Amino acid sequence: MQQNVHAVAPPSAVSRGIVLAVLAAAGFSAKAIFIKLAYQYQVDPLTLLTLRMLFALPFFLLMVLTPGALRAARSYSLRTWLALVLLGGCGYYLSSLFDFLGLQYISSALERLVLYLYPTFVLLLAVLCFGRRIGRREWLALALCYGGIGLAVAHDLRHAFSGDAIWLGVAWVLASAVSYAVYLTGAGELVKRIGSVRMAAWGCLFSTAGIAIHFLVTRDPQALLQPWPVYGYGLAMAVISTVLPVVWMNIAMTHIGASRMAMVSTLGPAITLVLGWLVLGDAMSGWQIAGALLVVGGVIMVNQRK
């Protein structure tokens, strides 16, 4: 039924959906740029992540404190709340923390490409957990994705000081992608019951609590006293790369559907590549561009599987 609605959507609605999808992809892609800019002020990853989530907290509270959201929350079972806590911790707390750690060592473009492997991990989890068989087309998609990552890593190795640091950064971001894939694998039924926006809001609230506890246990609260630009980048991540993209993405899906949304999101690595070149002065090579094309092509094939 939903696909039929999307099929007959007026051109104006489709255009609006595509614009919002592009904005969402750009917002998510800008996160790595803001992190890299903040790291110039010697802020550690956990402190920066804590600032980001604290700045985003009021927006997510607004999403779950509406009368409709509160009525819905009263009907959630204990199992639903436990799932929200676990999935929020995996999909937002661990995934974000691992990503911030990895960006200490690798370029923003390589980070986005490695993180963008999460659909392949969703596929592999389906094989391991649900006995799904991988077809020839999907093997080709996996080969394209990981071949592309190999080219992107080669680019960073040529333009970085420490190869060991690059492999450590890739490992952290791979862990982030796996954590997010676990979240997506477990979130399917929950999204159908409570909706993607409310699930994202509750997940972010629980992950913010986890991040705050982690910070208080391992850091002096005075670590939150940072130069003003760090606060600016933290706020930009909260609004431009967290809250607004979630809203834009969900509105876009109502206009163009999930499949088109997934196609538009493939612009993400290219946007990060260009932003890294323009804003951070990152080197750009043919190897990196070729790697990005291979990864994007492989992800498109995974997303189009029957």
From TrEMBL:
Residues 16-152, 168-303 form the EamA domain. It is a multi-pass membrane protein. Signal peptide: none annotated. The chain crosses the membrane at residues 18-39, 51-70, 82-107, 113-131, 138-154, 166-187, 199-218, 230-249, 261-280, 286-303. It is found in: Membrane. One of its GO terms (cellular component) is membrane. Keywords: Membrane, Transmembrane, Transmembrane helix. Belongs to the EamA transporter family. This is EamA family transporter. It comes from Microvirgula aerodenitrificans. The lineage of its organism: Bacteria, Pseudomonadati, Pseudomonadota, Betaproteobacteria, Neisseriales.
